[in-house]
Amino acid sequence: METVNIHEAKTHLSRLIAKGEPFIIAKSGKPIYKAVPIEEPEPALRRLGGLEGTFTVPDDFDSMGREEIEEMFGLND
Q1: Three-state SS for 44?
Q2: Other CB atoms within 10 A of residue 25 CB
Q3: Domain boundaries, the chain
């Protein structure tokens, strides 16, 4: 693991982070801080069709409640 002094860490922080490896920051030769990259969890895979077969859609789905809706908006007059 690389050890750098505070001045070098401030000057080259972007370069140190870009490596993606942990490093230690030292002051007067004594380690004072350990920087480690955060590991992001793998995104969960989304499976299409996961609910297939668990329910059925009625044949009249497109017209369900049509009469009530037309009555509410006065469209059946």
Answers
A1: coil
A2: 19
A3: 2-35
